[in-house]
Amino acid sequence: MTEKSSTEETTAVAYIPPTLAELGRVHFIGMGGAGMSAVARIMLGQGVAVSGSDAKESAGLTELGELGAIVHITQSAHNVSGADTVVVSTAIRESNPELAAARAAGLRVLHRSQALAAAMAGDTVVAVAGTHGKTTTTSMITVMLKGAGVDASFAVGGTVQGLGVNAGHGEAGVFVAEADESDASFLNYRPTIAVVTNLEADHLDHYGTPEAVYAAFEQFAALIPEGGTLVACADDAGSAALAAQAAAAGTRCLSYGFTEGADIRLMPGIHDGLASTAALAFREGLLPGLGETPLTLRLKVPGNHNLSNAGAAVAVAVALGVDVEAALMALANFSGAARRFEAKGEGRGVNVYDDYAHHPTEVTAALNAARTVAGDHKVHVLFQPHLFSRTQEFAAEFAQALDLADTVAVLDIYPAREDPIAGVTSELITSQLHRPTGYAPDSAAAVQSLADRATAGDIILTIGAGDVTEFGPALVAALSRDNHG
To answer: What is the DSSP string of 259-284?
Structure first.
């Protein structure tokens, strides 16, 4: 594979965002997307004049319109008329008519991350990065802070259950943001507290090599100012190595995880259906006055990976000086983020869930959690690979992860931003599976097949970052209409 990263892409050059006053009216191209809508919502809360467009209507766009944004359905050059700044995501191509018109008019064009950096300016920034778990961890930190009395601003890549939105403007001077590493845009942020949940090779379509991925995270950690904190997972080799390097450079580091010696150590988790519990032990002297008795972490979501994510949230509470017992009480109310083991319904005693997992490590975590929920019953999976490049790189690892299920149906690859790669199909994965079903080019037949296989007490899990989420309701419908005699 040819390395696509460059010195410009991977060197942490200080980005100084414009002030909100300098932005004028801000137009978002593709405003309905999760990341774009979050920034638009934040700016509306800050009194910025906002407009935006998208190819189709959505509930999120309707909400932004109700908050005062000018919303255009369809994209056209005239939509940018009157705008001073235009915001794009990596998905927007130069041929987009609105972006072309903005370039021709000499308007300021910002990447979504640069616009978010402008919205965060002046706040204590908690930026959550990592190959996996960013959305859930950012959501947990937000729910935790608000429950503990800290009215934080937040921008998350998915709807936070319990809050009902993916972003909000708070008054506490603390900003919690999901920091996307997929295109190195997280290097536009200036985190006071940087969280790295894990560090593995991914997004090689952008970076080219694993080494370039690691270099970007090194530069992300280097953005932490004097007096700031790196929160890192002790269980993950990449994150732990990053913390060791940062600590050697003089950065304060807080580690969390199940590993002995972590500053915030989780004891083995106890799982009961969708609930998870673990005792927490703190490094001596970390919380003066705590005493010897470990505290208890309780969650309404399953899996050790979620207990680990909550460990990161607790570390943030420590770094911010938030009362840890109040933080744990707030975390006990956390019920999840959209598309993260999200319940879609039930039919014939079979529960259907949806999960955004799209990397082998994430798929493994989702299926391990599914096992704790299903107990002695079976787990059936409808999986949709995301990106040709990722499928090519990790086909064997995906097959190994999917073998944790009892039956698997694998849809065609969701291309997202990529063009096809010769010879790369879902059969690269299914040819290495040891479970029934395999490749399923006919999605309707795959839905019916999984519904036919499932019996009361089983669970069906749709997995992937594409439109596989749309099959959850179809599975519930198939289960509900099929009485099996």
So the answer is: STT-SEEEPPPEEETTEEEEEEEE-T
- Strands 70-73 and 85-88, by their bridges, are unpaired
- List the alpha helices (DSSP H) in 46-111: 59-66, 97-105
Average pLDDT over residues 369-390: 92
Residue pLDDT, tens place only, 4-48: 333 334 345 668 899 999 999 999 999 998 889 999 999 999 999
Q: Which helix or strand (DSSP H or E) is residue 339 part of?
A: none
What gap in Å lies between CA 401 and CA 235, rounded to an integer?
19
Task: Verify whether residue 134 is a known catalytic residue.
Answer: yes
Question: 3-class DSSP state for residue 359?
Answer: coil
Report the binding-site residues for ATP. 130-136
Do the two domains 22-110 and 342-481 of this chain adopt the same fold?
Answer: no
Intra-chain end-to-end CA distance of the chain, in Å = 54
- Decide: 453 and 440 in contact? Cβ < 8 Å: no
Segment 388-414 mean pLDDT: 94
In the set 98, 178, 362, 393, the catalytic residue is: 178
Phi, psi of 439 (to 5 degrees): -65, 135
Active-site annotation holder among 85, 135, 197, 361: 135
pLDDT of 143-180, one tens digit each? 999 999 999 999 998 788 778 889 999 999 999 999 98
Task: Assess whether 11 carries a catalytic annotation.
Answer: no
Q: 342-481 in CATH: which number?
A: 3.90.190.20
Clarify whether 178 is annotated catalytic: yes
The correct answer on CATH 3.40.50.720 for the domain covering 22-110 is yes
CATH number for 122-331 (one of 3.40.50.720, 3.40.430.10, 3.40.1190.10, 3.40.5.10): it is 3.40.1190.10
Q: Which of 130, 141, 145, 105 is nearest to 199 (CA)?
A: 130
The domains of the chain are located at 22-110, 122-331, 342-481
- What are the tens digits of pLDDT across the range 269-295? 888 888 899 999 999 889 877 766 789
Give dist(CA 190, CA 297) in Å, integer: 30
282 token code pair: 């703190």
Taking the CA atoms of 226, 229, 235 and 238 in sequence, report the sign of the dihedral they define: negative
DSSP string, 95-123: T-HHHHHHHHHT-EEEEHHHHHHHHHTTS
